[in-house]
Specification:
Layout lengths: L1 H20 E2 L2 H5 L5 H6 L1 E2 L3 H9 L3 H25 L8 H17 L4 H14 L3 H29 L4 H26 L1 H11 L5 H16 L10 H25 L2 H4 L1 H5 L1 H15 L11 H11 L5 H30 L3 H7 L7
Antiparallel strand pairs: 1-2
């Protein structure tokens, strides 16, 4: 299954890159006017001279500030994660920051978002808790991101005239997610009774296997233990809002770097809203199977969202390349440093996919 997902993701990334750069002309081949290679690559969709020119005119100061947003975002995320894992143990802010950066680093170089597993495993080692508890806290952290994304989509859908199908789908998804949150909260609060029920259902299994599965479930649920402490809700909510504001701030700074606020009236008229539309598009496409770092799919999402504001494909491609690069460069450089700090090697990361206990 994992192998198939890697193959599908790689094919999708290549396909997106292909359609970003070229416009195929299959009719020319069928009519005998073009050979197969000419028809396959057709004509260039991008004017590379215009692309290079847009990159050369980027303003460096807002770009540098946009680069600094990435560590700020990781710091806020570490603070939220620290609150999430508080019932399990004391996680230092710097330790949480380092583990999160390592997680992003792993997601950048390996497929299947193995970085999320790496985060849970490293947390387990740092707090001396079970790895399933660590993974549960990561699952809760990512669930918060999904819920926040859908809330932002719903709000943006009301303020920005997206296609009716998209707006309707966002509302339905929002209702579904809120329903799941309520059910999940109930299950966590009444975790003991759920555990007892699962234990009964697993009665036919051998005792050793049954006890292992129940213990794993209990440990995983413990990663959601912050739901039992209402005092942590305000911190989690505020941090979640700050994370999304930082996402938007980074986009706004790169828009300034490319001078899009002066070049494109639609962006100028709805400056903050346009940033959130771009953030939403990038977040959604990152959930699509792709090559590591979201190559191809991420860029296609950015280009599509900018097209809504009449930005040409040459400038939009340059924007996508730059905003992707400033985050990836941070994760690669500082992820390597924190990898060394954690005493990890690339070979160990590869083993996480098969067996998290290897790390």
């Amino acid at each position: 299954m994992n192998q198939r997902r890697i193959i599908v993701g790689t094919i999708l990334s290549i396909a997106f890159i292909y359609f970003i750069i070229w416009i195929p002309q299959p009719l020319g081949w069928l009519q005998g006017e073009l050979n197969f290679t000419q028809a396959l690559f057709g004509r260039a969709r991008i004017d590379f001279n215009a692309l290079i020119n847009s990159l050369l005119q980027v303003r460096l100061l807002p770009l540098f500030l946009a680069f600094l947003v990435t560590p700020a975002h990781c710091l806020i995320r570490a603070h939220r994660w620290k609150t999430i894992v508080k019932p399990l143990g004391r996680l230092g802010l710097f330790d949480g920051f380092g583990i999160i950066v390592v997680g992003y680093f792993v997601n950048t170089i390996l497929p299947l978002r193995v970085g999320e597993i790496a985060r849970g495993v490293l947390l387990g080692k740092r707090l001396n808790i079970s790895k399933s508890s660590g993974l549960g806290s990561v699952a809760f952290d990512r669930a918060l991101d999904v819920c926040a994304l859908l809330i932002v989509v719903a709000i943006t859908g009301f303020l920005f005239r997206l296609p009716d199908e998209v707006r309707q789908a966002s509302r339905v998804l929002l209702v579904i997610v809120l329903f799941i949150i309520v059910i999940l909260a109930y299950l966590i609060i009444h975790g003991d009774s759920i555990s007892a029920l699962v234990k009964k259902l697993l009665t036919p299994l051998p005792r050793k296997t049954r006890n292992f599965l129940v213990a794993t479930l209990d440990n995983f649920i413990s990663g959601f233990a912050s739901l039992k402490t209402p005092g942590s809700y305000s911190t989690i909510i505020i941090d979640s809002i700050l994370i999304w504001l930082l996402y938007a701030a980074q986009v706004i700074l790169v828009l300034f770097a490319f001078n899009f606020y002066q070049l494109y009236p639609l962006i100028q008229m709805s400056s903050i809203l346009s940033a959130f539309v771009i953030v939403i598009a990038s977040a959604i496409v990152l959930s699509v199977p792709s090559a590591p770092a979201g190559i191809g799919t991420f860029h296609a999402g950015i280009i599509f969202s900018l097209a809504l504001f009449d930005v040409g494909i040459d400038e939009a491609t340059g924007f996508a390349i730059i905003i992707h690069a400033i985050t990836i460069i941070f994760y690669l450089v500082f992820g390597s440093i924190f990898m060394w700090h954690e005493g990890l090697k690339l070979g160990q990361l590869q083993k996480i996919k098969e067996d998290p206990t290897e790390v």
